[in-house]
Amino acid sequence: MQEAFIKFEQGRKTVMQYEAEFTALARYASHLISTAEEKCCRFLQGLNRELRHPLVPL
Question: What pLDDT digit, counting tens, does each position of 6-36 carry?
């Protein structure tokens, strides 16, 4: 599951579908995203490019 999380991208999923699956997979890779900032950055990296660029992590 950790490898699935590392390779996980939005692809053809809606943002809501992507977020739900991201959250489920994140449980198996908590050591890779130990802070909220790391989790946010990883989430943004997996989004489709056209959605990713207008967004910035807080």
Answer: 999 999 999 999 999 999 999 999 999 999 9
pLDDT of residue 52: 84
Q: Which of 54, 51, 46, 55 is nearest to 19 (CA)?
A: 46
What domain count does the chain have? Answer: 1
HSE-CB for 26 with a 13 A CA cutoff: 18
DSSP state of 54: T
In angstroms, the CA 4 to CA 23 distance is 12
C-alpha–C-alpha distance, residues 14 and 34, integer Å:
25
Note whether residue 57 is domain-resident.
no
